[in-house]
Amino acid sequence: MERLNYNLAAKPASERLGYLAFVLTACVFAVFFVMPIVWSFANSFKPAAAALADPAALFSKAFSLENYRRLEHVGAGWYVYAGNSVLIAAGTVILTVLVSVPAGYGFSKFRFPGQSLLFVLIMATMMIPFQSILTPLFLILKAFRLQNSLLGLVLIYVTFQLPFSVFMMRNAFDAVPKALIEAARIDGASQATILRRIMLPIALPGVATVAMFAFLNSWNEFLAALIFLSDQNKFTLPIMLVNVSSGIYGIIDWGALQAGIAVTMVPCILLFLLLQRYYVRGLTAGAVK
After folding, report:
1. DSSP annotation of 1
2. What does the alpha-carbon distance between residue 202 and residue 205 come to, in Å, rounded to a whole number?
3. HSE-up (13 A, CA, CB side) for residue 203
4. CA-CA distance, 152 to 92, in Å (whole number)?
5. How far apart are the first and last CA of the chain?
6. Which of 6, 222, 248, 269 could bridge 238 with an S-S bond, Cβ 3.0-4.6 Å?
7. 234-275 pLDDT, tens digit each
8. What is the distance between the alpha carbons of residues 162 and 123, in angstroms, rounded to a whole number?
9. pTM of this structure
10. Element housing 73 (H / E)
11. Which residues on neighbouring strands pair with residue 248, listed in sequence order?
12. HSE, side-chain direction, 13 A CA sphere, residue 56
């Protein structure tokens, strides 16, 4: 605070007013983004009667874990759905990173016939709406006996995550000077050694960004999981939330719904807080050369 006051005092009055206006605007936007999260967590600890009587109220005098206990009786139980989501998200992250890192390195540091065309074709797949190819994907999974399996869902998520991930990793490797690679080659390092020991540590923010996007997209995805999974024991957390929100006889259990939302949000929030510094650096990798 002392350094902030000193910096403000050293600036002209117009710059101080502009800086204060920026801080005030940022605080207002932060409140708008944080309040829904606070509201969901606060309502998840309300007793069932209080949550049903006034779902919009922020706080309640009573504190209860009843909503979380009721999630254990939704279908196979929230812990089963959470475990499925963890397996799917982990598999998506691992496969996406394993494929996108060497692919991005190849597009960045190697030259081969048709390179630009191949890269454009990969990027063009990002323009294909997922809903338009649901039927072909269903038939492919059925042909390979991967229908109604977590592995089949992981492969679909990886397929749709790869174009963006390859693009991000190519930009991350573009920011690494070629002099480092040339020096490693003079020392006798192989391409695999260069990628593993030199390129990856420098491009780690890009890898973290790719992993975060892959996790968030697979963790929160709903449509593919709803269509390609038919066994209730293989459902994910987003499908569980739909079952909770539909309720019995159309009555929404607001307390249990907010508890399910809180369970779904916690891993995403923790992951972002842990990787936020890499996230920003990874997004801007390759922007300036």
Report:
1. -
2. 8
3. 32
4. 11
5. 35
6. 222
7. 999 999 888 787 655 566 777 788 888 889 999 988 888 888
8. 9
9. 0.84
10. none
11. 251
12. 0
